[in-house]
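REVIEWER CHECKLIST
Item 1: Sequence provided? yes
Item 2: Single chain? yes
Item 3: Sequence as submitted:
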Amino acid sequence: MDRTTILLPPDLRERAARHAKAQGKSLAELIRDQLAAVVAGEDPTDDPWLADTAIHGGPATLVPEPPPLPSGTLFVAADALVARHWRGHPDHPRLQRAWAAVVLRRPALITTPTEVATALTDLARRTDPAFAAERGRRLALAKHLTVVIPSADDQQAALDWLARWRDATADHATCLAFTVATRERVAGVITAADPYRWAGFRVLP
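Item 4: Structure as written out by the authors:
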């Protein structure tokens, strides 16, 4: 990363520092994020879902440097949706790294209705139903996340995945996610769930 010096009026620097702190970021992160959005021709608040920084249970884990993302579409698993907004999730710190990169770089994202339903149900049970409902409302307005409805062929392929999953952790919803992610030729999956590795997907972060 290149070092650049910029001159700011004292009042602007103070307001920007307060704004960054409120978002759980350093001033440098805030400046980088805003510059990336401007260069990309996007308003950083144009997507109500990506702009949603609410965290239940305290502030988000600070991410000094978001990791690189592979080029191409990424699949978002239910656990990643939950960890984005619940600090108590065991993988919250690790998955926040992926989310920081997503907010900064805005790759194409997909998921399934089942992953969304699973995530919102889990979030409602672990935090507060009203909090989960608001996350769902924002997610419904997402511009950078497409919810892909599985086809009848996807449903059959998911059953084939399920038949190969030979232990008590078998999960049909995850097999359906495998099928959609395979059909869409995703570059990786944002998750901390081991079954995606077992199925041969690149897992992020």
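Item 5: Key structural point noted by reviewer: The chain has a mean pLDDT of 89.
Item 6: Recommendation: ____
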